[in-house]
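Quick start: what a row looks like.
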Amino acid sequence: MKKVLTIAGSDCSGGAGIQADIKTMTAHGVYAMSVITALTAQNTMGVEDVLDAGGPFVGKQLDCVFQDIFPDAVKIGMVSNIETIQMIARKLKEYRPDNIVIDPVMVSTSGCALMHEDAMDTLIRDLLPLGAIITPNIPEAEKLCGSQIRNVDDMEKAAKAISRNLSGSVLIKGGHLTQTADDLLYDKGEFIWYRGERVDNPNTHGTGCTLSSAIASNLALGYDMRTSVGNAKDYITGALKAGLDLGHGSGPLNHCWRMK
């Protein structure tokens, strides 16, 4: 069985973060492991509080995973502070896993900041260059490239600008565009567009976590980058179309929609 590690924050309501990652990985038939960077008190209506695990404890979790069950892919989500980012980067350089997928989580679906402002430079300098792919949404991509993204042309310019300091691919998710839900992959100097229908479902809690975990699972299963992204996009479209409706706010996806 292929193994995938998620390094992210916990969502007690089960729709995002570690919980969404583990559900997604299980749905893909891979063995899921987790290193928890922070505990969040949240639900479909918002994030109430965040308790960081701290860099040293994150480092101990990483040692325990890598020294026993070495992952075939790694997904990185919420990393809220400089100390934690530096520890993760150090351990990744020490153990050198393949197929690192980084979702630069900065703001929750409900609009709550999940990363300290002073951690942005450390993320860009120390962690993002280690990724085989990074998966920002449009607001995150705007922060990374320093310019506004209003349309598909802006997405291409942003992807190229962000990639200058990276060795891996860049996937800009187009869910925040008003007309389409097209995603753009900038891979090895080429633009690959994944055209997608906009699913009429207000319940989008944890979509970014789910997509990045699906990409990591596909990479672990041996698919190439472009196929992995396409498969992951198909998976999340199905999870949205399943129409799960839980909670009083932006609810979670049905991660197990294709499991019998």
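That is the whole record. The chain has a mean pLDDT of 92. The longest helix spans residues 225-241.
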